[in-house]
Amino acid sequence: MAKTNPPDGGGSDANENTFVRHRVARPPKEGLLKEFKSVVQETFFHDAPLRDFKDQTASKKVLLGIQAVFPIIGWAREYNLRKLRGDVISGLTIASLCIPQDIGYAKLANLDPKYGLYSSFVPPLVYAGMGSSRDIAIGPVAVVSLLLGTLCQAVIDPNEHPEEYLRLAFTATFFAGVFEAALGFLRLGFLIDFLSHAAVVGFMGGAAITIALQQLKGFLGIKKFTKKTDIVSVMHSVFGAARHGWNWQTIVIGASFLTFLLVAKYIGKKNKKLFWVPAVAPLISVVVSTFFVFITRADKQGVQIVRHIDQGINPISVGKLYFSGKYFTEGIRIGGIAGMVALTEAVAIARTFAAMKDYQIDGNKEMIALGTMNVVGSLTSCYIATGSFSRSAVNYMAGCHTAVSNIVMAIVVALTLVFITPLFKYTPNAILAAIIISAVLGLIDIDAAILIWKIDKLDFAACMGAFFGVVFISVEIGLLISVVISFAKILLQVTRPRTAVLGKLPRTNVYRNTLQYPDAAKIPGILIIRVDSAIYFSNSNYVRERILRWLREEEEKAKAADMPAIKFLIIEMSPVTDIDTSGIHCIEELHKSLEKRQMQLILANPGPVVTEKLHASKFADEIGEDNIFLSVGDAVAICSPKLAEQQA
Amino acid sequence: MAKTNPPDGGGSDANENTFVRHRVARPPKEGLLKEFKSVVQETFFHDAPLRDFKDQTASKKVLLGIQAVFPIIGWAREYNLRKLRGDVISGLTIASLCIPQDIGYAKLANLDPKYGLYSSFVPPLVYAGMGSSRDIAIGPVAVVSLLLGTLCQAVIDPNEHPEEYLRLAFTATFFAGVFEAALGFLRLGFLIDFLSHAAVVGFMGGAAITIALQQLKGFLGIKKFTKKTDIVSVMHSVFGAARHGWNWQTIVIGASFLTFLLVAKYIGKKNKKLFWVPAVAPLISVVVSTFFVFITRADKQGVQIVRHIDQGINPISVGKLYFSGKYFTEGIRIGGIAGMVALTEAVAIARTFAAMKDYQIDGNKEMIALGTMNVVGSLTSCYIATGSFSRSAVNYMAGCHTAVSNIVMAIVVALTLVFITPLFKYTPNAILAAIIISAVLGLIDIDAAILIWKIDKLDFAACMGAFFGVVFISVEIGLLISVVISFAKILLQVTRPRTAVLGKLPRTNVYRNTLQYPDAAKIPGILIIRVDSAIYFSNSNYVRERILRWLREEEEKAKAADMPAIKFLIIEMSPVTDIDTSGIHCIEELHKSLEKRQMQLILANPGPVVTEKLHASKFADEIGEDNIFLSVGDAVAICSPKLAEQQA
């Protein structure tokens, strides 16, 4: 069978001058252990994380191992003054941005402002030693703060039991860290890929709206405000308080500084060189407005102020964690949810900037770093920290080179905690609200949503589902919707693979989808179907039924057009990368159904795994090796003359 | 670009004599509504269930609609005496098999024997009117009985609160029916495909062992027996009772009749014409042993007997269902689990026999029939009924033609209930145990397990996981393991798609996996990689990283062999059936990474959906339409001379 002259003088995708017909090869059989090893490698170590360890001495291996856990050892040796300059500038810039944000975000988590600042001190230091991203800016972020606040609040009232609430928040932070590190350590990092990009865009947009709406309390100076986060409840609160609850002085302060922040943002966007304008605008707002309130004593007019922030750096909080009881299990649950969202955000940021600067990020190692940083954070009075989109972008644009910018930021935050916090006493809450509103607006990515709409309507549905879920119901429900829709899409993919009828492109021997290439001509008496997926238990019944439906439809068409009846069914198996027992059953049943109708089943180009399994299951013998071809072209070349014979 | 002479005189998969080069076609754009409609159709109506309704008058449509719900109307008109003869014979055969089984299975569910018989009366009648399988035999089955018994027992002790236990069992049956019907009605039947064949084989085998072990109580005449189902607890009970708890008279009766049953089974297996021997053997055993005990009064010697079965057909049980309270929610949960297992078994049977006789089964309609039958059953004192593997096989071999055989069986069971039940008084429990053991042994499918081992090692792991989970822990845990492993396999499939390096088969223009075809030669300076899956959010990062790893490895090889550096990366996209926003990002990032290394990314043969999305996202413009080819051959034909130029 190795060399035959295909009867139609064309035959196969082969070069005409030689008429070579190759057999479908059975790949060399691998041992069980080797097969198992290769599956494990592709699943958990596809990026070959140990490749640098190969062919090294033992001592070198230990050094490499330590360096793998603490990348700082690697890059510190190549550190120089030029890099330091960039890192100091960017570190100062993100510090000025993070201090006011931290104070505001802590309030989203129903915590005192100081905990926001604490979380910008210890976690960035830990990350700087262990993380591999050069651009990420670590600290509290809006969405995770809101999520943590909402989830913890449902368990304990933060006003009635502030101490228990705080302990629950630390417990959740601890377990968030444990989960993150465990995912990385077990190399299960790919699990976060199950939250689809589209769902994340929708979720983030919805969370941004929700956070902005929550700020209306501080922005309008309302005293009685709903605890719910959905837009209906919030609007009810806002307009219910309209008659006597709004404070005009607060509104004036808030609105003027929000305008200032938005203008600064616009300037930064228009001229990339002025990126520092929006970065320092929040701190300027805080300084100016605090001074203004201090001078005018506007707080006596009902303008709410921060009042008091404890001085000093993070106290130890080891004893505050719950390790038994109801709050322990709740802490695990909340930590799991918030930790995953934090992880998704941080890894997305790390990957984005790594791609921009073309360096590699090991997702799993990154997770270990983020997890460790949160575990350490939970022991030092921090709540969940992660990578911040807005601050990382500023960090990048300010010219950071390494994680030293995070160290610089942490030092500035620590100095602030030690020396400057009393000065925040007269900072009006309205300013913090304005800063948060201007920050979270950047999370609403309308361009991405439009692109998603253009590319994939189902993705857009996922995006909108998450968005409206967050805005109209709650953050958790929105997150749940995102996850469910993401999974539904995966399930849809594996249960309903595509199939296509192929035809021959004119004057070639190429067979292509007749719907994509209207030129491609079907061959009378032969139906060619391509199955576009591995055939597994999850789709084998569908595949069989769908092929039979194609057959039925094509037979009806052939009858209507008075064409010869279909005698050969060729399945193009190039895209069928794998098959399991259910899949083999499916093809066997198809073969039997066709036999009863006097049709011949033919397989074209099964891959290595499929070929192996066709033989292992003896189906290759049942159908006959003669009916398995290297390509559709080969198959047609052999079937056509048979067909002519039958009709003669 | 439509017609060019490829410079190497070969070019593309194309026929040599004409040198045609086709463009990659952008399929005609579909409207949003049409696109949505086609997704919905493929997902929920892929078998075109309404095709018969097309082009019919309104009255005809109504008639067809009624017939769709009650297929009996369709086939009853073509019913004739010849078919009746086959159905009566097979109906009588399965009745003789089901009566002793029913009594035994009811005990597995911790219910009185009569409930087993009830469940073989009403449900088969309902199914006969609504079901579309011609061969399935309806009634209680061992595995579902055991599952229901185990789950209900964990909530209520059947000895202490028999009335509440019974009510819970009916409630669970009701909701099992509701779930089954709902799945079918919502056309979500494909969800049961998520339990993989391998997991089912393992689960069934484990359940068979567990059931057989449970029978040791009746078989050895042990009075005190564990309530747990795992093998360790059971063995502990058995040997703990060895000294004084075994009853030798019971063992003699049980062992001799078990031998008889197994011999009968062996005869039936050896000679297919004697299929009726194993089918009637149980009834003969019951009659003979009952008579024997009645004569010898062996029950006075400690041989346990059935004692009493109420006379009369099913009483109404509408008032017994729980519709509120704790048992209501437990009923929903238990019904959901047991219902899904029952459904999986019934649909698998229906499909198997439909394939053997080559008729079509509509899975969703089948589920509505099975669900309705259980809902009606729960209102008439039945517990969950489904299709029985062993009885369906007997039904098929006895020559059944339609569901009339189920009607015949139901009538015989009803007559038994009305007239014969008092005669079962002296039936020894050991006989029932022997009948169940001999019945469930058929569920242990060693051949299937061996085949699974040969075909797919991961599948085998799933199979064994389910098996050992059931045998060593419990039925629920075994089921959970099956589901989890099945899902893990699906997730593995979507997160870790295969990729392959392609080479050119000698003297052809065909490009194939170099691992499968060691002959296939790589082309210096060009790396060709095939991605074997749709690129979605769940795998886009993996795909990008894996391609970069291939590139790194091939570059190292090229360097070591002193070959020209790689300048072109061709991605063969034939198997990439779809791409989402994350996938587009992945390719964009890959393109950027390659640009930085002075390499050119080239796409070969993107399918219709992918082509559309490449254009919608403007990536086609970014990479340049010139770098998208119809086939790998075309791409190589264009790249090779460019490469030669660069090197010159």
UniProtKB/TrEMBL annotation, chains A, B:
The chain crosses the membrane at residues 136-156, 168-186, 198-216, 246-267, 274-295, 332-355, 367-386, 406-424, 431-453, 465-488. GO terms for cellular component: membrane. Residues 516-639 form the STAS domain. Residues 1-20 are annotated as: Disordered. Keywords: Membrane, Sulfate transport, Symport, Transmembrane, Transmembrane helix, Transport. InterPro entries: S04_transporter_CS, SLC26A/SulP_dom, SLC26A/SulP_fam, STAS_dom, STAS_dom_sf. It is a multi-pass membrane protein. It is found in: Membrane. Coiled coil: none annotated. Its main location: membrane. One of its GO terms (molecular function) is symporter activity. CDD domains: STAS_SulP_like_sulfate_transporter. Pfam families: STAS, Sulfate_transp. This is (rape) hypothetical protein.
